[in-house]
Amino acid sequence: MIIPRLALRxxxxxRITALLTVLSIxxxxxxxxxxxxxxxxxxxxxxxTIAGTDLIVGARAGDVQLLLYSVFRIGDATANISWQxxxxxxxxxxxxxxxxxxxxxxxxxxxxxxxxxxxxxxYRYRRNQPLEFSSGQRFDDLFEAVIGHKVARxxxxxxxxxxxxxxxxxxxxLGADHGDKPFxxxxxxxxxxxxxxxxxxxxxxxxxxxxxxxERGSAPxxxxxxxxxxxxxxDLAPKSATxxxxxxxxxxxxFSLQRWVNTYSQEAISAILPGVAFAQLWKxxxxxxxxxxxxxAMVVVTALLGMVTSVLGSLNERRxxxxxxxxxxxRPAHIFGLLISEAAALVVTGICLGIIVSFSILYFGRSxxxxxxxxxxxxxxxxxxxxxxxxxxxxxxxxxxxxPAMRAYQLSLSDGLTIRT
Amino acid sequence: MPNAAAPADATAPADAAAADAAAAAAAAxxxxxxxxxxxxxxxSFALEIGSLTxxxxxxxxxxxxxxxxxxxxxxxxxxxxxxNDGSIWVLGQQLENMSGRQRDRFRADTLGVIFQxxxxxxxxxxxxxxxxxxxxxxxxxxxxxxxxxxARYLLECLGLGGAELAAQKASQLSVGQQQRVAxxxxxxxxxxxxxxxxxxxxxxxxxxxxxxxxLFSQQRQTDATLLMVTHNNRLAARFDRVLxxxxxxxxxxxxxxxx
Lengths: 421, 259
Fold this sequence. Notes:
The structure holds 2 protein chains of 2 kinds.
Chain A: H1 2-13, H2 15-47, E1 55-59, H3 63-71, E2 81-82, H4 83-90, E3 95-107, E4 110-115, H5 119-122, E5 124-125, E6 129-130, E7 133-136, E8 144-147, H6 149-155, E9 162-163, E10 183-189, E11 199-203, H7 204-210, H8 228-232, E12 240-241, E13 243-248, H9 254-262, E14 269-272, H10 274-315, H11 319-327, H12 332-373, H13 384-415
Parallel strand pairs in A: 4-11, 8-10
Antiparallel strand pairs in A: 1-13, 1-14, 2-12, 3-4, 3-13, 5-6, 7-10, 8-11, 9-10
Helix pairs in contact in A: 1-12, 2-10, 2-12, 2-13, 10-12, 10-13, 11-13, 12-13
Chain B: H1 7-11, H2 14-26, E1 29-40, E2 43-54, E3 59-63, H3 70-78, E4 85-90, E5 93-94, H4 100-110, E6 111-114, H5 126-135, H6 144-157, H7 163-167, H8 175-187, E7 193-197, H9 205-222, E8 225-229, H10 233-236, E9 241-244, H11 245-248, E10 249-255
Helix pairs in contact in B: 5-6, 5-8, 6-8, 8-9
């Protein structure tokens, strides 16, 4: 085939322009693929933040709000649930397990969460993956804490480190802390890419213990002060919880229990299905990601337009070349084919390089991205959607290059063998 | 009017017309009552030729002042331009009855073309430039090794032997060398009609004659018909016949809008 061969030779002859065109297509492809990878990665990471929990119960509030504070520790609960209610729910026949959580305190900017040891059995993320310890184990003693991967890394904690919990959720403790009752780190969790990484876990009883004497909302004074040793002697059974993670014996029962919770008369509580609430939340966040994808699509369009512009710009100086080809018997269709082949070579090279570059970035940067952003990206050459995007770039490039090719076709028809330069 | 046939023709018996057609088919080029009009916004141009015949194997120099329509005539003979009226026979084919595609194929098969200068694709090697003439033709299509052999042979005949030179980029050659490569490309695959549009005008005096010697020697070897446009009377004198386009045709050029 003479035409593709001529196309390659002619591109090699104009290699600087060709390289720049390929480079701009490559970069736009890398950007499009990158955004798409991060978009889908963020979505799956996000939607898989919590798994295995059938219902989340909290004080009556909007679904999204309840999800935000119970799973993402963003914002606060409007009210707590009394322990009587917790027991009532635990006693329901549909219920297999209940894990209470208690929020409100913090440690140097990381939220502190009280929970029961079963939390580490039942909490699942990313397709039913259980929590694992990178060192140590779950808390056993009252004054032991389990910390997430990020907490340990950012604050430089190891198993056995001493930590002090601050009252309230602020980054700065304003002097109101639980410094008299330090905790020993008993275990550090492996990274999960979920809010778990940024959480300090205490026993439910420990939350009660550090708040002895705080019933009026401020630090205890005088006779109200109890030492850590004295506190151990007290009844520390939890009196309330912020929210409950509930596992059911059968998923079929989800709606009946939800209805029961939502009509519970003793207290204003509501139950949400995590999946449904996540989908609602994603509808809000997902638009941002789509906008990002749209922007990178624009970048691709710009790169292709750049290619068309450079080809169009070179047409005049190539009229002699076309006349020579016509003189040896090339049809105007051959001239058209030559320009289309050149564009195809540029676009295909750009796309292939783009795939290689983005895959390399993914391959070498994956662990760093997971570490830094908590985003678990799939190591895949191209998903079905990405393949469609790449095909769209190719087709778009071909369609765009019809413009200069048509122009060349017309020029070669009107010029004939006369050389105009 | 060019399309109004002469009265003698109108009353001529049918077998005389058939004899005319047979004669036209036997010639290398035969033109009858040709009219070609070209007009755009600021120029209108018309070329009329009553009758022109070039026999096979003839060497013909086409002369005439600039703008007299020499290049247009060559374009018509090459089949890249189509006449508004009249007929053009080239090597037994009636061009105006062929489709554009057929004429392109016909040109690839039977014509060798040399331009004034810069005949070569700068990004191909000398050898590839010569072989380019064989790529678009079915009749001249050969196996790759045959192509190379023919191209190398012609380069050698034209004083451009040697593998090193053949592998060079066309843009690295001198103008004289480039014209000789163009001649090699025109003759490769032995097309029966060679069209040359002022191929010597970019060369100096000595080289012009030398180049014509080369053209003639190739023409003799292949028995091709040679039609060459030139401004140089000394060169034109060496041809079998000199055609002066101004004597041959009625030419109307009007410049300026609204012509």
